[in-house]
Amino acid sequence: MKFVEAERYGAVPLLQDEMVRESPPLPDRDDSPPPIHRTHLLKGKDGLHWRDPTLREVIEYLDSADKVEQLNASGYLQHLTFNDNAIKEETRELKGIPKLVKLLGSDVTDIQKNACGCLKNLSFGKENDSNKRAIRAAGGITALIALLRQTPDAHVREEATAALWNLSSCDVSLLHSVSSHFVLFFN
């Protein structure tokens, strides 16, 4: 029997089968789709096998005329960009930022919320200053302020405000741009 040291409780017996095992290290980054034969869970009702879309495909879906595809793509991209600086950089390189800024003007509230969440994730952290400048260049600050002015939805307002907060933590010129937009917003 093995024991685990707990600060407050002393030694606690822990069976080998109950131990949490660490996941194996991930291989080098590979943007190819996962193998189609991964599991039976990826098989649809029609017998077809499904795979996760590549990042390029997700970004292309942002331009779809189908609102459901826009909603799913923006939501999935928000998930992908959370705490992954490599995906954030690649999203910028694949021209995803202007597409997200365009989605801020959607008439579907959930698409607006997802687009704001993506921009928030893309602009989080000092290491993403290039993304902050790209958001500004794509008209993102103006679009976020306009969205704040017109949306009654509290979740959209929260995500838009968080994106603007992240954008304000960049170089002085971008900070000046955000603050001047806020002055216009509150006047």
Automatic annotation (TrEMBL):
InterPro entries reported for this sequence: ARM-like, ARM-type_fold, Armadillo, Plakophilin/d_Catenin
Places the protein is found: Cell junction
Protein name: Arm_2 domain-containing protein
The ARM repeat ranges on this chain: 95-140, 139-168
Highest classification ranks of the organism: Eukaryota, Metazoa, Ecdysozoa, Nematoda, Chromadorea
UniProt xrefs under Pfam families: Arm (PF00514)
Domain of life: Eukaryota
PROSITE patterns noted in UniProt: ARM_REPEAT
GO CC entries: adherens junction; cytoplasm; nucleus; plasma membrane
Biological processes, Gene Ontology terms: cell-cell adhesion
Source species: Toxocara canis
Keywords: Cell adhesion, Cell junction, Repeat
Main subcellular location: other
Family label: Belongs to the beta-catenin family.
Positions of the UniProt region annotated as Disordered: 16-37
SUPFAM superfamilies cross-referenced by the UniProt entry: ARM repeat
